[in-house]
Amino acid sequence: MSTPTKYLLQESQMPKFWYNIQADLPQPLPPVLHPGTMQPIGPDDLAPLFPMSLIEQEVTTEREVEIPEPVREVFRLWRPAPLYRAHRLEKVLGTPAKIFYKYEGVSPAGSHKPNSAIPQAFYNAQAGVKRLTTETGAGQWGSSLAMAGQLFGLDVTIYQVRVSYDQKPYRRALMETYGARCVASPSNETEYGRRVLAEHPNHPGSLGIAISEAVEIAAQRDDTKYALGSVLNHVLLHQTIIGLEAMEQMHMADAWPDVLVGCTGGGSNFAGLAFPFIGHGLRGGAKPRIVAVEPAACPSLTRGKYAYDFGDTAHLTPLTKMHTLGSTFTPPGFHAGGLRYHGMAPLVSHVKELGLLEAVAYTQNQCFEAGVTFARAEGIVPAPEANHAVRGAIEEALRCKREGKAETILFNLSGHGHFDMGSYQKYFAGELADQSYDEKELAQALSGLPSVPA
Ligand SMILES: Cc1ncc(COP(=O)(O)O)c(C=O)c1O
């Protein structure tokens, strides 16, 4: 009998709890600091931006957090998500490795982002919030929150990084189809946006600036809160449904990963897949190698400093300890817009400092090349962000070939690229430049890191 290609769980097998890695870490996460007092912040400091239920999830050290039934009910539209064995890719690469991928592109918005957008909208609606503001890069998060807002009766305003807004007009149409308003950032709608535009009228935007705009608006109104698509502990918590399902599916396949691979922008899809496996290892189970893949043009994990920094460019957020390129750093306008963030999730950064994960960086052409190889073997066209994970997985498979090892590789295919075909066209036309960041700008951004007493 041939080995299966897809491993599918029943709706009844969908996890009922998210997994919190904070319960299993050998050292606790460094505290979040108030930039004025440099003292750890309390729940009240975050209350203007988030409902208390999400603030509680941000700080909890409980191992399991229950997924509310109304959230699970929406998740049933596409979850559990399939796990695939990449038989054809293995053959094309001629590798003895077994390659598995968890496919998150089956969600209505096309990526893993609804895994957190749905619970965030649910908890905000439950707290009586009427309106959400957010940032988006490529538009995957924006369209996910737009859909979630519609399902739970919330108005959603999205500040989309200008370069992605111009590159991907159909993502905006999708956000509008779900009933949200999408504004190019920097915009004239906020004080901070106007300040940036006054200095640089053609500014390409960055996630740090878009976050500042969304936070500025949310902080002004009692009925409005802010939602973040990555980085924060509660977002990573929500994404662990990916890894929890994948563990069940690996059991079905009678296999277990030796290597796990994910792409990292703010760290949420990567942590979503990896944290349940890392936790299993910390509790005495098998310890796979964990590989985070980031863009060479925005390499926070491989080139950033592990230091306290702001999460946004206008410095409206608290200080978190993370791998950062500096909050004023503007990455070049490459096509994986969802990976253009100056910082890395504090939890992913901390886990790296504990020596529990490795990080590598690839250029966008290296990643598109891998994405095309994958599409031609497996049929699915990955999002440019997900191409980084594909590249990482292919590198591991080729290493196995060189070393004659039949290892098991599991990677997260975080989204499809159906709205990103313009960047594929550019790749085929040879017009995709491997822009590197400006070393001087990086040095300047890093020299401006806030000084925090030891
Ligand atoms: C398909 C896809 N993968 C990955 C990312 C990166 O985000 P994160 O690191 O939070 O998973 C994004 C962000 O927009 C995305 O759209």
Automatic annotation (TrEMBL):
Pathway of action: Amino-acid biosynthesis; L-tryptophan biosynthesis; L-tryptophan from chorismate: step 5/5
Keyword Membrane: no
Keyword annotations of the record: Amino-acid biosynthesis, Aromatic amino acid biosynthesis, Lyase, Pyridoxal phosphate, Tryptophan biosynthesis
Residue intervals of the Tryptophan synthase beta chain-like PALP domain: 76-415
One term of GO molecular function: tryptophan synthase activity
Cofactor(s) annotated in UniProt: pyridoxal 5'-phosphate
Residue(s) carrying N6-(pyridoxal phosphate)lysine: K113
Enzyme's top EC category: lyase
InterPro entries (UniProt xref): Trp_synth_b-like, Trp_synth_b_CS, Trp_synth_beta/beta-like, TrpB-like_PALP, TrpB-like_PALP_sf
Reaction(s) catalysed by this chain's protein: (1S,2R)-1-C-(indol-3-yl)glycerol 3-phosphate + L-serine = D-glyceraldehyde 3-phosphate + L-tryptophan + H2O
Single GO cellular component term: cytoplasm
EC number: 4.2.1.20
Family the UniProt entry places it in: Belongs to the TrpB family.
Assembly information from the UniProt record: Tetramer of two alpha and two beta chains.
Function field: The beta subunit is responsible for the synthesis of L-tryptophan from indole and L-serine.
Protein name: Tryptophan synthase beta chain
Organism whose genome encodes this protein: Ottowia testudinis
Name of the gene this protein is made from: trpB
